[in-house]
Automatic annotation (TrEMBL), chain A:
UniProt cross-references to Pfam families, sorted A to Z: FtsX
Membrane-topology annotation of the record: Multi-pass membrane protein
PANTHER family reported for this sequence: BLL1001 PROTEIN, MEMBRANE COMPONENT OF PREDICTED ABC SUPERFAMILY METABOLITE UPTAKE TRANSPORTER
Keyword Transmembrane helix in annotation: yes
Chain segments annotated as transmembrane: 254-274, 310-329, 349-371, 424-444, 655-677, 702-724, 744-766
Keywords per UniProt: Cell membrane, Membrane, Transmembrane, Transmembrane helix
UniProt-listed InterPro entries: ABC3_permease_C, Membrane_comp_ABC_pdt
Compartments reported by the entry: Cell membrane
Protein name: FtsX-like permease family protein
Ranges where the ABC3 transporter permease C-terminal domain occurs: 261-371
TrEMBL record, chain B:
PROSITE patterns documented for this protein: ABC_TRANSPORTER_1, ABC_TRANSPORTER_2
UniProt keywords, alphabetically: ATP-binding, Nucleotide-binding, Transport
SMART domains named among the record's database cross-references: AAA
Domain of life assignment: Bacteria
InterPro entries assigned: AAA+_ATPase (IPR003593), ABC_transporter-like_ATP-bd (IPR003439), ABC_transporter-like_CS (IPR017871), MacB-like_ATP-bd (IPR017911), P-loop_NTPase (IPR027417)
Organism the protein comes from: Paenibacillus phytohabitans
Residue ranges constituting the ABC transporter domain according to the UniProt record: 5-249
Protein name stated in the entry: ATP-binding cassette domain-containing protein
GO molecular function list: ATP binding
Amino acid sequence: MFLKILKKDLRRKKVMNTVLLVLIILASTLVASSSSLMYSTSSALTSFISKSKVADLNVTLANKPEYAADIRQWLENEKKVEAVYTQQQIAVQPNQIGMPEGRTVFSGNTSFVLSTVPDQVNLIYSEDNELYSLRQGEMGLPVSLMLASGVQAGEQISLTNGGVTRNYTVKGYFKDAFMGADLLGLKRIMLSAEDFAEIGHSLPQDTLMILWSFIAAPGVASSEVSNSFAGADLPVNFEVDKSLVSMTYMTDRIISAMMFAISLFLIFIAFLTLRFTIVSTLQDEYKEIGVMKAIGFQNQAIKQLYLTKYMGLACLGGAAGLGISIPLTALMSRKTSQYLIMPGGSIRIIISILSTVAIIGFILLFCLLCMRKINKASAIDAIRQGQTGERFKASRRIHLHKSRFLPTAFFLALSDVLNRLKSYTSLILTLILSTAIILIPVNLTNTIVSPAFLEYFGTVEADFYTATVVGDKTTQEIQQEKADISRRMKEQGIDVSLAANYALGTKYISDDGQENRRINGQKNDFDESVPFLEGTAPILKNEIAVTTIMSEKYGKQVGDNITFEIDGVRSTFIITGLFQSISNEGYAVWIARDYNPQVIGAYLFSGTINAPADLKAEMIKEIQSQYSELNIKTALEMLGEITGGFMSQLRSINALLTAIICIITLFITSLFVRLMITKEVHGIAVMKSIGFTNSAIRLWQVLRILIIMAASLILGVIAANTLGGRLLGIIFRIFGLTKLELTIVPLQVFLFYPLLMLAVVMLAVYSSCGQIRRVQIWNMNKE
Amino acid sequence: MTAVLEVTNLCKTYIVNKSQNNVLRNINLTLHEGEFVSVMGPSGSGKSTLLYTVSGMDQLTAGEVVFDGQSLSQLSEKGMAELRLHKMGFIFQQMHMLSNLSVYDNIILSGYQALSGKGSGRSRSDVNQYADALMRKLNIIETAAHDITEVSGGQLQRACICRALINEPAMLFADEPTGALNSKAAQEVMNELCRINREGTTLMIVTHDVKVAAQSDKVLYMVDGNIQGEHVLGKYSPEQGSRERERSLTGWLMEMGW
């Protein structure tokens, strides 16, 4: 008999069961995929860093004998370092690299160094995960450069050094754990030892750089080595420790974490739907359940009947989801596997299987929870259909006879929503979550692509920027260069306010002198440069602004004194302001305009065009073509280069997410409306009997969902802009931002996406309202 | 007198498991304006089906039903709804009220809906006043604010009558309107129905109660989907009493095999 009842249920509730099955499949697919992806990304990173023998601390210094001697001296007394390796490097600018025809030139915001293939530390691997090697005349490029430029293996790239141009054949790309991450703005270009030596000999020896790689002694953390090295007071060009290398791959982790969050959302929706279907099935069969109990069925036996059905659905959906997740995981990890060596073995599959089993288990547990109502159903409930006539509070919130102007259809819709709010919980929660889940990544994307986001990288807002120039120069030299460019532009009738943005090395010294840390310093020709969360920009020479992260870490507030070492000179500064920065885990300082350091490590010029806004785009194009040697970029182009592939990944996820959410919303709303109509056949028939037309009844249904939709949209938008902001704030704090200001594009957040959701919901309602026409008046006697 | 309802060769057949069940067989009848007709007969004879079919609540299999000069089978869904809203009232045996609304809102709902049509000439407050008056007459005014699950079957039946009368229909169909009521309440309902009939509303009711049927102008007796006969009682007036009419009707019913 159980089988008979089960068959009847599956036949009668085809739509409901299908939607539930689809949701379980979707949820299990995404959970299995994302958990496997999270595991593989995370373990791949650890194993790849370990396999590549990334040194605990890597520093680059100019090739000067006195620096080498200082390091040797430091090493003699330092027991924390077990081994040290060196490798020569040559810095190259993008304009020294000649690309094959039709290929994109390398970004001016990335720094490049020529190197030979390492054989002891910071190893690199071919796309087949074998140790990389080069022959004379060949050049090796990291995968990020190959993808960004479109260069293919076998093509020719030229390098110009000391006035001599040499051609090299590009070999297949290499995977670089040390400098391969998108977020790292320094990339290695590999040459054979012979070719490297040829270039090296042609250049003055002091223009070469040495990469020093230190391996920590057993039990010593890489941060201890970097702290100790910072005390050696050496003019470092570039420094990165092992933990920072791991940190640069954060974007890959964010993507897999986002996928996991989406799967959790889907599971939540699946559970809501499950609850809705179980509760509505139980309501429909309240009478039968009461009768079954009256004739002696035990609660357990009745529950088993329903549990069998949901177990079947969960197992079927879970198995299908697991099957789909295998190719999906491979697809999603394709980009990561180009950068990293993915772990082999069956653990990924086992994790996927375990995740699916967990989902099935949770579904069954949830079913049991929802079926507690069966224990309560008694014979009298069966007779009275759950209505006992008892009431402990006023059940009507609005009355038709008290409303003077409300049209009847609108009144019925409003009355339904207000009086039976609990019945709509599943739909309301789904719609709120759907709206929020679509809008949070939209806000994230808009925040990141907004030119104001550049300020978090220490770059002031301007109309255009020149490429960053790396190399030790004095302030006077840079000012002279700026004056030359300004003069040329003025002669050509281009009215531009040009400012130099400087990056220099500083070292924080703790009050007791025991602790120190290298921190990037920035300064700009203007006083007001980046927005300050507290205080103002430094003006006097003894003033400085620090980041909020530093303020928290070192316990320093505006007005406090702080010691820094710049150009080898220790000075005490007064903190005038707190700002935030996304580079170097949030550690940065802003130096007063009047402070003139001897050596500037890197600089760029930013320009603000003094012309009406609508003319600026055209003028930038003109400047870009006339000053091609400066490699001029707009703010958006700068951002694109800094954030690299992360932006396109984020956009793809947004599109995928919007599509998934729209499909789910369509499914759920359609299921909901159909179920409601099925439950309201009696009411619809009664309405028809007293003279309501099909269109008036449809209007009531549409208005009801519209009211729910409007409320859910408002709550969803508020949640996305407030709670979403906090959630993103937590993520961005890892990168150094303590107060993330979301960039909310009103047209998208308040109009486009709500209208899209509304259109999807209306489509679902209209496509499901066809049932109304099929309801006949005599159906009301079929109870 | 003008014919309000003309039924010609009406047939209604249900097909259950490929076998035909002819519930109504070639029914012919005419109801004139202001007439009060009762339909009686044993259970399963097709009385309720006849009522549902001639009122357009159910579809007919063959024949024709003309209401107020309009053939029901020719009417669009919208036309049929208009007819139910403005010209017909229906009192169901099982009441069939909307569970989401209070008793009062159930009554006025179709009154308000009718206002959205053209030229109704009434306002919402007119509808409210009329509903109040009807509820007072049927002694259910105290149930106005209640949920439909909080009132007795008899009170609900009377609320159903109020709802059917709210738009002052030209014709009222009632399926066992006093079935759930005690004799006193039943008489109150009948008094109200007779009053509106005297005011010109045509009435067709299905009943098992001789006392109820005795107050109608004509009684039809149905057996196996056919009208076996009709008994004309003439216009009833409360002053003359119904005892004689009941006796006459009972005698006729006995002859018909009641």
